[in-house]
Amino acid sequence: MSTQSIALPGTDATQRSLVEQLHQWVTTVDHKRLGLLYISYALIFLVIGGVEATIMRIQLIRPLNNFVSPQVFNRMFTMHGTTMIFFVAMPLVFGFANYLVPLMIGARDMAFPRLNAFSFWMTAFGGLLLYFSFVGGDGLYGAGNAPDVGWFAYAPLTAQAFSPGHSTDFWTLSLLVSGIGSIGTATNLMATILCLRCRGMTLGKMPLLAWLNLTMGWLVLLVVSPLTAAQLMLLVDRYLGGHFFDTQAGGSAVLWMHFFWVFGHPEVYVLVIPAFAFVSEIIPVFSRKAIFGYPIMVAATVGIGFISMSVWAHHMFTVGMSSSANTFFVLSTMAISVPTGIKIFNWLATMWGGQILFRVPMLFCIAFLFQFLIAGLTGVMLAAAPFDWQLTASYFVVAHFHYVIVGGILFAIFGAFYYWYPKMSGKMYNERLGQLHFWLFLIGFHLTFDFMHIPGILGMPRRIYTYEPGRGWDIWNLIVTIGVLFQAAGVVFFVWNMLWSYLRGVPAGSDPWDAWTLEWSTSSPPPAYNFAKIPEIRSRRPLWDLKHPEDPDWHYE
Amino acid sequence: MEPSFIPALLLAGAFLSPTNIFAPVSTPAQSIYDLSLFVLQVTGAIFLVVFTLLTYAVVKFRKRKTADGREPAQVYGSTQLELAWTVVPVLIVVVLFLAAARVIASIQNAPKPDNAIDVTVIGHQFWWEFRYPSLKVVTANELHIPVSDPAHPTPTFLTLLSADTDHSFWVPRLAGKTDLIPNHPNSMWLDPHETGLFLGQCAQYCGTQHALMLIRVYVQTRDEFDRWVREQRLPAHTSGAISEGQKIFERTACINCHTVSGTAADGHFGPDLTHLMSRDTIASGAALNTPVNLRRWIQDPNTIKPGCKMPAMGLSDSELDAVTKYMETLR
Asked: With 70 as the cut, is the pLDDT of residue B178 above it?
């Protein structure tokens, strides 16, 4: 492990012109640069998806509002959902995985650097295709028209009869294209983790982040494939006279639901497992303790991966499955709370007896723990099928999955941003701005998503562009919309912090957190080749062993 | 928390909203309510325990100013603890699963008594068609059913079909929702114990006007319901001479979509208008059934319900007046 850098010919970018630097970024196959491309691409879409959400919230701020037409509102929730899942959350977790996995397992790059670049550009192309629909959606009909079929695009609304023009085609093609990118990255991550670990790093000595990303990798491979197949079938329906989902010609709307949710539910775990990975790295470092129960954490992760493949039809409790099918999916869905609960308790035990340091990354992780707990418990409510018959497709379920995706996943990702920012940029972020971001976002999150449960309980369905007064929904919708202001303000401070610190921040040094995994053993930012000499390790915390030669971890593992 | 406190709090919500799921008046909604109270109590208890532990850990083990700079004792795990927080959740899951399974069976597998009312519900973009096959009644958007005395239940069984895209029938105080899916008949049942008007709406995104696809369920005493059925079975009320409005109605494309029984109008794409004036609302609950609204609707439906499927017929003012007047005779 060496922090010295080697001057390679042609690696000194400072003297190059802007065009040459851009050319380097566009043609790069370096996992760190691709990781940063994924992340910055996702951040741009995060802002766009946020604007779409804000438009919806302004429309719903009071009953019978006329801020946007129903057509625009329907496009907004379709684009918001599709964007946030496929072009924000997935690129973010892929970006971090790309950047961190090779560094944390002591490798010089991903197993297939060119595949890596190909995957990123496919994902990027998918996002551009989706947004091109605003311009070219109706093709020959003239004006632009974004998709308006909802992010799970239930059949037969996507059939030519109900969705003429090309907006649905843009949706289908963008997911098809970015899905190919996702499958490429998943394959790459698995190959990297299985084949490129440094000497001494057995599977049992990998950082948890690598284990979790390995699980995420095979989950993506198994579940994005059916989604991609379904998109092809939909295209066949729309253009080649197929009748898979075309109910007017005897096709099956329920078949699409199965295809979509057999992807859609594990997708939640595709996103949340990397979030678990960030939390599993950050909590130990800021509690100054080793992760509690590493083997059971790995087992719980793999268990979640397996069980998550058998729960998809809990999205379909109201489509008229038999009572025995409903009962099975209640059991499988509730079962997933056991390994998830184990994780929460193990993080708790990691903090127990530690010395918790409330820096921004840790604040986000602590909020994650509380919020993920609540998200899990509302999940148990929804898993009880009869309760779900009332709650599903209402604002309760919207609040629930935003609790998972924002309160859980996004908070963990924000934690990861602040934790690895010094490594990626070489500069320290501004702690005060970070705290401001955290508290504003926390307040906004709770205003929006805590109160969003209530209109659902009071019978407000999701995806309605307007509602009548007298239903008891008005005040809750007002509060929910006010929360958006705080969240937006928080994100402004976040972006400002990232940019300002990059230009003005103090140099971070290679190991600002006194951490224990391999990425902190090389310089910040790491050189193109990551490590001058490939490290060799004896325990899960190689830097702990270096810093505490009198009491190394490999005595206990 | 006092166990009786939660139900009281939830019931209070009935005054807040006519569509509160915690104010059930029908057996399926009541069974769900009972289950949900149990689930809320269990999850609430879990929340309190874990919340307390997390808060305690965060406060108690924060890094103190007096820390001596040494790392805390490293603990790598504990099989007993990990076993404990695996086994206890497994037991809780088993209990919750059994409770849910019982309610699923009791609602989904409930036998249909001979005296049940049958209604076929057909979802359309963006309105509801209600057909009573044995009573020979066809109506739209406003479902009439008899109250069901728990001692002598007269439940209503709904067969759910769709004419186009997916929809979902949701009247929160009567039952959970069930989807209407083309080529995939579903069923559900209601047995309201109180008379009154119960509101609901489509709960599965079905296209542009999903938001204003509202449902009104009128629960009536048996006598009132029987009288309503008798009136609905009568053909359209005609005074002998064919009015100017009827001539215009039958001359334009109106009759391609609408039925007025006993006349030339026998379209099926839109609501049956034979007894239009017996309904309180038009446009699937989007507007009150007043002459002014009716005229506005006929003139340009998009001003009331943008994106709905009924086109503006381009009638002149006098034609509009005549057709509106004709509609007002359809009692």
From this structure: yes
What is the CATH number that goes with domain B244-328? 2.60.40.420
Question: For chain A, which residues score pLDDT lower than 50?
Answer: 1-3, 140, 142
Domain borders along chain B are: 5-63+76-108, 117-233, 244-328
Residue A11 lies in a domain: no
Report ipTM for this prediction.
0.94
Domain carrying residue A536? 25-555
CATH code of the domain in which A128 resides: 1.20.210.10
| Confidence (pLDDT) at A141 | 52
Q: Which helix (H) or strand (E) holds A267?
A: helix A253-287
- Beta-carbon separation of A355 and B50 below 8 A: no
| Helix/strand/coil percentages in chain A, nearest 5 | 70, 0, 30
Are B46 and B85 a contacting pair, CB within 8 Å?
no
B229-267 pLDDT, tens digit per residue, is 999 999 886 667 789 999 999 999 999 999 999 899 999
Q: Which of B85, B109, B184 sits opposite A320 (nearest CB)?
A: B184
> Å from A467 to nearest chain B CA?
7
SS (H, E, C) B52-74: HHHHHHHHHCECCCCCCCCCCCC
Contact A415, A479 (CB under 8 A): no
Rounded alpha-carbon distances, angstroms, from residue A295 to A207, A347, B59, B61: 11, 13, 28, 24
What sign has the CA pseudo-torsion A512, A518, A523, A528?
negative
- B117-233 under CATH 3.40.30.10, yes or no: no
Angle at A540 between CA A536 and CA A543, to 5 degrees: 65
Q: What is the CATH number of domain B5-63+76-108?
A: 1.10.287
**Residue B176 to residue A461, Cβ atoms within 8 A:** no
DSSP, collapsed to helix, strand or coil, labels residue A426 as: coil
A6 domain residue, yes or no: no
Q: Closest Cα to residue A483, out of A399, A415, A391?
A: A399
pLDDT tens-place string over residues A450-468:
999 999 999 999 999 999 9
